[in-house]
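Provenance

Sequences were taken from public entries as deposited. Structures were produced by running a predictor on each sequence independently, with no templates supplied. The record for STAS/SEC14 domain-containing protein from Oceanihabitans sediminis is shown for reference.
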Amino acid sequence: MTIELSFCKMVFFENYVISTINEGEVVSQEKSNLQTQVLMDHFKDRPFVYITHRINSYSVDPTIYFETSKFSALAGFVVVSKEKPGIKNAIYEKAFLNKPFEIFEDLEDAILWADNLCNMKKKLGY
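Predicted structure for STAS/SEC14 domain-containing protein:
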């Protein structure tokens, strides 16, 4: 299933969502709240991983992660980027999120990590 908001596209899978933010966007708390509502409606209480596929250039207000950390179904967060500025930004953002947070250059590696994390949480009775 795919959902498009004015600033992003989200593609949903069993254990994760892949989000692609549009070029030039600034991800604010308001935009993050919109995404969170869509994620809550889809995943309910099932653990999932949010994968942001950073193929476009955009900005994120890192303080949004304080609220994102409170989302109990969010098992982990992944940034996929091949660009040095994107990786550098992700390292900085990681300090603001109180969830497992990984950075990959390859989307397939991110998906494997997401599936493994969610399957482990399910086995533990999340």
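The two ends are 24 Å apart (CA to CA).
The helical segments are 29-43, 64-68, 84-94, 107-123.
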